[in-house]
Each structure stands twice: as structure tokens, then as C-alpha cells.
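Re-run requested by the PI after the first attempt was lost when the workstation crashed. Everything re-entered from the original request form. Ligand of interest: pyridoxal-5'-phosphate.
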Amino acid sequence: MTGHLPPLRDPGDRQALVDLDKAHVWHPFTQMEGWLAGDPLVIAGAEGCWLIDADGRRFLDGVSSLWVTVHGHRVPEIDRAITDQLGRVAHSTLLGLANTPSAELAARLVALSPPSMGPGLTKVFYSEAGACAVEIALKMAFGYCQHTGKPEKRTFLSLDNAYHGDTLGAVSVGGIDLFHAAYRPLLFPAHRAPSPYCYRCPLGKQYPGCLTACLRPLEEALEEHHEELCAVIVEPLMQAAGGMIAAPPGYLRQLSELCEEYEVLLILDEVATGVGRTGTFFACEQEGVSPDILVAGKGLTGGYLPLAVTMTTQAIFDAFLGRPEDARTFFHGHTYTGNPLACAAALANLDLMEANQTLAGVRERSEALGRALKPLEDHPHVGEVRRRGLMVGIELVADRATRQPFDPALGMGWRVATQAREHGVLIRPLGDVVVLMPPLGIPFDELDLLARVTVEAVEAATKAPGPPAPAGGRW
Ligand code: PLP
């Protein structure tokens, strides 16, 4: 609930900060016209799973500060790991030098990578954001084909509703027209297959008889284009930013078998699903799939510092080996690649996940969250509640029977989020899909509060039009 702590700053400071923000900060994924007219929260501190604003008001962090927080905020063990590392060195480059925490973390991640029939993932390339790690994956796949005598393999296949980040390569394999269409003239062409969006299945099929039909367009694209395709890229189990679209069980497994059959590399983007979010360390483990390239980020540092990884196999790594004059070097890097502070935070996060048995805890909390959200399952304005671990999407609809969406101009997802905020819970929707992504270690009573406030917010927002949604837009 909205318990009150003493204000972290003088009351006058809040307005001064808002003024500075409005004068100078351009916010991501935000229609700034609406932002400039609004009265934003200014986060000044945190405690556990609560964010505290400049007036001392507390808000439950229902989306893990954009899907990153693992154990909560201000975790003593992670704080200590970062300050210990500060006492050694904050940053040194990985270009031509090694550093202690990046070497240790790479070994830990390899040990945690999906069990495989083959050699599995043995190499780790660091970057600072999911989108960078996706760029690296695309370039690695492309380079591998170039270096192994298959230069004609130079295109990618991705899914409708896919989101892989906002850099141009990642946008080229993105499938959300609202975000991506404007940039098409800048992008490289990629093949696209339908998304496994069961709730709005274009084939009108039902699980389990649907899988073959669902994968058929992808298989046809592989049949037709495999000679020019270097990789398929997908988000395993759940397409996140596309609206928490859960793939049916077996989909990933069959997709990976098709990639193998047609000799096309498989890139799994686990930026949203990885690091325990779905109840296993990587989501692909649940379907017994080990990709050629795996991308992770978000929760890697427990939600503390920007760090992402692109993991790959020995075979892909080996294809880049040679003398300098062979021009096989992987010419890619970022200034802060393998930053020691971020890697130290990640190591402390992994230690804590092990000590707290976080993965088992996610599975238990997921069941509890499912039970607490039961009242929504037959709500007249809820089409579907999709849940994988602690990753939940609640699709709001104008009419449950016909699945008719709300008029987008109503901004119904935002109306729900606004209601929840008034009751001390911060959530951020994706269009009309209400998203819950609590910290993985959230206490059960706070999880219950998150569910209760969400149910009440859906009830209130869909019953009465209420105040207009913030002009920040649908997303
Ligand atoms: N890939 C997926 C599946 C994501 O969900 C995201 C971000 O939400 C990204 C890539 C991009 O990550 P970042 O925002 O760290 O660039």
C-alpha cells in the first residue's frame, strides 16, 4: 500500500526536478507532448520491491523497472559486490585486455547455458543493451556463413509481433509495425512468418492439433529460402513487447528441428525471458532446445547496471579464427564491453539466485499469481490471461465473446495502469495488454497486493470511462 516515508528531498525540490526534466530530458517510447502536459512521478529512492518518489510516496514496482529487477532494489549483497569492485577498478577495456569479473561471469553463464546434445554454448560476447546483443548475434550469424563458404546465406527470418530492440538491425527483424514501419526504408529486408498468437489464431485452430499448421508458413519460408537464409531469430516461449504472446507448448522445439533440417542457424532472443523470468534460467530449457546463438540482458545484473551477452557455440567462434590478414576478425565492440562493475553485479546476482533458490521461487510465485488473477479469467473485458513464470499479459477486450478489441483511442491499457498507480502500484501496459513482471523474489504478500490492485484496476477502468489516458500514447 502507499505507506509513507519521510520525503527524500525538500518539497520544493520535486517541482524543480520536474522542471529540469521537462526542460531537458527526452523520454523513451513516450509522446513528449503528453509528458510535458502531465505531472510525472520523480523516483528518488527504493526499498525492496518498492520505488519511492521525491515526496516519499511508495509504489510497488510491478514491472521490475522495465523487466530487470530480480531480488528487489538496494540488495546488500549486490551493493557490496559493486562497492568491492569499485575498490579495485571501475572500468578497463576488453579490447586487448582481460578483466577478473568478466572472465568469471562468462564461465558461470556457460555453465548455466541450456544443456545440449551437442557442444552447446561455450563463448560469451559482452555488450550493454539487449538491442546491441541482438546486433552482435545477427553479425555473428552472417559472419559465420561468410567465413564457412556460404556467402549466399545473408538474410534472416523473424516473426510477426517480434521485438528485438531499437537499433536498425534489431528493427529489421522486428515485427511490430507501430514501432518499426516508419524505419523500413533504412532497414535490410528480412523474411517474416506469422506469430504463434493463439488467442487471435488466423487459422482458427486449437491446441494441440494446431502446431503443424502454425509452423507451416515458417516451414514454407525455410523450404523456399533456406539457401539464402543464415538464421531464424525468435523470442522463446513468449513474445514479450508484442503483447506477451505465449507460444503453444512444443512450438519452439519444432521450430528448432526445422532450423536443423534446413541448416539455418537459430538465434534465441532471451532478453526478456532469460535469467529466470519464466522459471528456468533460460526459457528454451523448457523445450529442450539449445540454440546456435543466445542473447540475454535485462535481469543479468539483478537490475543494477546495463549488461547484455551474446552466447554462441565453439563452431561459430572457430569460424572467425585466422591470421589478421585473413580478415576474419569479428570487428565489433563497444567502449564499455565487459565493464567490471556490471559483471561484478551479475556475479553477485547469480550467487544470490542460487542461495535464494530463485528459480524454484519463480515457479511457486507464478502459481500463486495465477490463483490471485483467477477473478479476471471470466471478466467480460478480459480476453485472455497469459502467464509464463513471472511474465504475465492480460489482454483487454471490448467484447469477450467476439474478442473485439477496445477502440485504441480509449487507451484502455493505460487507464488500468493509471488506476493501479492511484493505489500505489506501478505497471506499464503494452497497448491493451496489461503487463505484470514483478521482481522474481517479490514477497508473497506483495505479489498478492499486485494481483489485487490489478484486478480492481481492470474492474474500475473498464466499468467507467474515468479520466483520459495520459497522452503518452498507447504504448
Ligand atoms: N529483445 C527483447 C526480447 C526485448 O524484450 C528487449 C527489450 O525489451 C530487447 C531485445 C532490447 O533490449 P534493450 O532495451 O536492453 O536494448
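Saved to the shared folder this time. The longest helix spans residues 444-463.
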